[in-house]
Fold:
Amino acid sequence: MSLYREAGARRNLAAAAIGVALVVGVAAGAVIGRATKETPSLAEQMRDVQERTRPVVQGLDLVRLHVRNDRDAALAQAKRARDLFGGVAADLAAVDPAAAEAASRALDRTVGIAASDTGAAAVDRAAARAELAVRSAARLE
Structure:
């Protein structure tokens, strides 16, 4: 019986050693992977910010689309565009603080005009100006 117990103990020891080696290998791989990971280039970071800015521009397009038929929908889209801009404003400000601030003010103006009793043409103009300001801040074509 003691021979049987020793063989089982050896198997348990071997399994434990393999488990420990596996854990150490995975941990070492993760550490090495993080250490050798390249930081994104400035161009890659700018493309990322531009992609995150596109929904703001699309929202402003929707303001212009809805303003003649559904003023509430236009206002909701203007607010959504302004909120989305809040998520990229800091990144855009790192590139061009004045352009990011101008875009933020233009979005606020668009929301204010959309919420007022002004005509649809005024909302359309404000949304168009805001779109140009956002595109300029994000360097979008």
About this structure: The chain has a mean pLDDT of 86. The chain has two domains: 1-37, 42-138.
